[in-house]
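Notebook B, p. 112. Complex prediction, attempt 2.
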Amino acid sequence: MERILDILRRNGEGGEPYYQSFRYATSDETETVATALIVLNADPDLRDTSGQPAQPIAWECSCLQKKCGACAMVIDGLPRLACDVKLSDCKDTIQLEPLKKFPVVADLIVDRTVMQDNLRELRLWMEDQAVMVDKGMDVAYESSRCLQCGCCLEVCPNYCVEGSFTGMASAVPFSRLLAELPASRQKEAARLYTRRFFEGCGKSLACRNICPAGIDVDHLLVNSNAVAVWKRFRKR
Amino acid sequence: MGRVNVVGAGLAGLSAAIHLAKAGVPCNLISALPSERAQSVLAEGGINAALDTMGEHDTPAEHFADTMKGGGNLADPNAVTGLTEHAPEIVRWMFSLGTPFQMEHETLILRNFGGQKKKRTAYSKSSTGKVLMTALIDEARRYEADGLIHRYSHHLVEDLKTEGDGNDTRCVGLVLRDSYSGHLFAFKGLVILCSGGMNGIFPGLTTGTIPNTGNITALAFRNGVELGNLEFIQYHPTTVGIPGKRMLISEAARGEGGRLFILRDGKPWYFMEELYPELGNLMPRDVVSREMFFVSRRDDCEGQVYLDLTGLPTATWEKKLSDMREEILHYLSVDPVTTPVPVSPGIHFFMGGILVDENHRSSLPGLYAAGECACQYHGANRLGGNSMLGALYGGKVAAEQAALLSGQSAFADSSPVDLGPATSDWTASRTVSSIQTERLKEILWNGLGIAREEGMLRRAVQSVDDLLAQNLREWEWSRALLGKAMLVCALQRQESRGAHYRSDYPDRDDPRFQKTTVAVCRDGEIITAFRPIPERRDDRGTNP
């Protein structure tokens, strides 16, 4: 099995973007795009399809099993995790591009710091105040699984780095807060949720099926909206 | 007040940073990638604490006894006393931060885990590490907003700074490289290393993450920091190969009723249940892995070992293991509900590492270590459920110790200093080629498997010596030296204990070897010694 990886590259922030193609051959059908990138980069004499010497491909990866979100990139037009996409599910040529909603650092690496900044601005923390009951557990669990990979922001028509709308990548963590905070802090949290998420969301639901962790965003939104927008605070 | 430098933003690093902040001590939280990418998010099964919510009359003393016994009585008993007595407090703290542990009727549910007769492991399906990390990341964010935790994600440790000579040498800071800008920065202050296990010395053969390169441990070693118990490498019984790594199937699978078998004379033989009737499939990991190794070499057995989960109730899959099922389906195209999963042991945890005392101080004053990079708590073999506990508690202890010294004038001004772009020579010396990485892995793999013996270890040492004699770059040399230290420690421990099994010395030898193996680098040479384990003080805790 051979694939061509057509990669949108850029040497640092100011560099001009360009596509460079690499040939990757393997007999293992279970390999992923991440495997291909690792093997290509391990070649001390890396060359592109035209035989020209090439620098190693800059990308981030950590767990290789869909649990850390490091390797999010645009694969054949959709934001995916490189360790999630099997080569056997791809066409002969696979196009890899960096996430476009974030500043490019180099090649496939983007700076997603803004996601952390947003969560800090939203005051997303507990302060030893969680009120845990069996009923809220599924929301807290589902919400806790967010990888902060940025795939949901990539497909969102309303999200941009400079805007005040923080997108599903903050709404998901927020649902844990809204489910577990004591009533004294829920009102403030509800106000921030409404202003920075609910009012900016165009309800396109583009993010619904893109989450690599398979988080049930509908379920979380229903719960968060009930608290924050419809003021159904849970009785303690 | 000077900032403490915490290296690593997984469970141990976050715990250290948060406990520093709680004490009002500012810190730099330094990591190659953000916390969400840390190896801690992969931890699955749970966290141990004698919370005794299951009506079994569990106590910290029993947790202590199981941890010591499971670790071949090689751990520091005073440190383990602290760990096990504080475990309930650690889990309650995580609960108060909103960790969605499994609950029923407002009660925390505990599960069975290997090497422990009582239910002691709090969990959240098989994503416990992930949900603990989310809760801690949120908590750290509060102190980030308060200006007490300063995050330096995408920063790599490239050097340790020391002052003084001989016995007066102390650690005074770090040199970091911003992997985005390429600039070097000098960070002054105390250092707490929470940089994870040495997975990168065995790339592709472990269940860990790629950024845990082992380079920081190698750097500490070449700077004269003592390492301990390097020969103890945990092979987790139930791993499967996926592209680029070993994927773990959590011990929770066996805790919930999973059974191991191999085909003997054409029929499934549930060998662990026959060989160890009391704990069966839940024997400590070293025992299970070794038995898997042995049965797969028997003439009357064929093929590999399988993990049989087909008898688990539907409710267990739905409530406790749904994420595990999804993962196995995705990467192996096998549905564990209906089909046994072929498994084999894979490297999962390094009990050895930077040797620390019960206060998490390394041999180099000013340098602390916690989490998997440290040698503490687990002795010769770690019990499932104790790693996340050790990371959280160890980070807390290290932070409390560092907080005591952080007010010293030597560390008063610790604003990072921009040293400009790394030179090409600097970068080249810290580059590790894939060829050298593969060569070292191959040598160590041949010496440090599940069953070891003198001949294979000597041949591996010779091979590393040949490697070291080549024209290696600085960091390649450091990594090879660390690898050699692992082999030498394994060679010198002429007994079998915990994860270290010597086919030529199959018995445990307490008089000679119930000691900590210490390795230190002096002028490029490795010096090893066996050091007595601290006596258990009677002023702490209840007797086991």
